[in-house]
Each structure stands twice: as structure tokens, then as C-alpha cells.
Write a structure and sequence with these properties.
mainly alpha; 89% helix
């Protein structure tokens, strides 16, 4: 469960970095 949350958080960080 925590692994999925971590992956989602990483994706969000990546998206924010792209913006």
C-alpha cells in the first residue's frame, strides 16, 4: 500500500517539475 502511495507521490513531483 505504501509503495503505491510513494509511486503516486513521485509521479506528482515529476509532473510539478515538468510544469
Amino acid at each position: 500500500m505504501s509503495e503505491k502511495k510513494g509511486k503516486k507521490q513521485k509521479l506528482i513531483e515529476l509532473n510539478e517539475s515538468l510544469i
